[in-house]
Amino acid sequence: MARTQVAIIGAGPSGLLLSQLLHLHGIDSVVIERQSRDYVEGRIRAGVLEQGSVDLLIKAGVGERLLSERLVHDGFALGFADRSFRIDLRRFTGDAVSVYGQTEVTKDLMDARVAGGGKLIFEATDVAVEGFDGERPTVRYLHEGRLHELACDFIAGCDGYHGVCRRSVPATAMQAFERVYPFGWLGILADVPPAAHELVYSNHARGFALCSMRSATRSRYYVQCALDEQLEAWPDSRFWDELRLRLPAEVAQSVVTGPSIEKSIAPLRSFVVEPMRFGQMFLVGDAAHIVPPTGAKGLNLAAADVRILYQALVERYRTGSTGLLDRYSERCLRRIWKAERFSWWFTSVMHKFDDDAFSHRIQLAELDYLTGSESAQASLAENYVGLPFDTPP
Ligand code: APR
Ligand code: PHB
Question: Which atom of ligand 2 is nearest to the CA of 45?
């Protein structure tokens, strides 16, 4: 039977980053992925990195293209009541965020793993994780028509929300917390210059809209939509019209339209599972928690889990101590819940929930309060740039 130290299920950002950091510390891993490499590298996801995530990517040796191509944003705007209000991240936190697509992060990590001789298995089917309750965990999978068995010390479940790892844990051993929102985001990517230099999150009576970007020539826009919305009902012209209706006039005027190069609908969900460790198996990133995309915390939370897990594994292999591994769940969850709270709050304030006029007035009052209170702005800024990794108990 083949053997490795850490079997990593899933080659998304969590699995690739973990594998890369372990490799740099002399720990062997195998990454087992259900999809093809092209599929994984082509997925379009969010694009805002906290400085802590940037620092970890630099540590992982994949900072070069990120540092040269990223856009550093010192602030972002809130649109509401036909006005635009800037949240000054730099002033309130001394920090900023980096705009750099998750698609690019994934490509950089993939290239680094391949260059480093990493063992990556794509298009593996029927992946099964077994024996993680005891000392001999194994992963079984089918690849190119053959059954493979991989023995390991630890399993890292980096296989996203729909993965097999969390589903392999008995329901009685964990508790799940969930909130499903009654709407989705319809997003498009287009090779047009962004409407504004910074992101604009807009609350509008017709529904939420977001102006984001990937570069000075590539824009990413979203509008809130019904969950049963069909993409065919949204030709580009309808999307651009709806977007402009939902933005403050000064921003709407600056929207440059063009053909979309990607269009998709994503549901919004808050989800956390506790604990994140089951014997020798550790859940990482989307496998353990989901946030709605308002605030772009998904990838940043995944990076924070990887940071804690790779340090714990390094300690275990260097000294034999399981002290950090034993605290993995608790350390991750403490910060995750704060990011869940922030993403839920930002979603609640910015979206149209129903036709309840009272709720909309309350949202506008909250946004108006924010524009008049520096402490409220500081709190929003602090959460947006990313909370510290470890706060005292
Ligand atoms: N076997 C092997 N691989 C699997 C399986 C399985 N049974 N199920 C899922 N996978 C793979 C998926 O194909 C995907 O490539 O696991 C990977 C999980 O990657 P992500 O969903 O990107 O999750 P993660 O790496 O934790 O990254 C978190 O991605 O979803 C965004 O917003 C989220 O930014 C966050 C980030
Ligand atoms: C994106 O650029 O895709 C993006 C940016 C900010 C968000 C969500 C998504 O809050």
Answer: 3
Residue 343 lies in a domain: yes
Residue 177 reports pLDDT greater than 80 = yes
pLDDT tens per residue across span 282-324: 999 999 999 999 999 999 999 999 999 999 999 999 999 999 9
Q: Is residue 302 part of a domain?
A: yes
Mean of pLDDT values over 62-88: 97
Q: What's this model's pTM, rounded to 2 decimal places?
A: 0.97
> What average pLDDT does the segment 37-53 reach?
93
The number of folded domains in the chain is: 1
Question: Residue 44: nearest ligand to its CA?
Answer: 2
Ligand 2: which atom is nearest the Cα of residue 294?
A: 10
| Sign of CA pseudo-dihedral 371, 221, 180, 16 | negative
Give the closest ligand to the alpha carbon of residue 343: 2
Structure token digits, residue 54: 């940037």
CB atoms within 10 A of CB 322: 12
C-alpha distance from residue 260 to each of 40, 367, 376 (Å): 21, 32, 37
Q: Does the beta carbon of 140 lie inside 6 Å of ligand 1?
A: no
Q: Identify the pLDDT of residue 46.
A: 86
Range of the domain at 52: 2-71+99-177+269-350
Whether 101 is in the pocket of ligand 1, judged by its Cβ within 6 Å, is: no
**What is the residue with the minimal CA distance to atom 7 of ligand 2?**
296
Q: For 335-382, write each residue's pLDDT tens digit.
A: 999 999 999 999 999 999 987 889 999 999 999 999 999 999 999 999
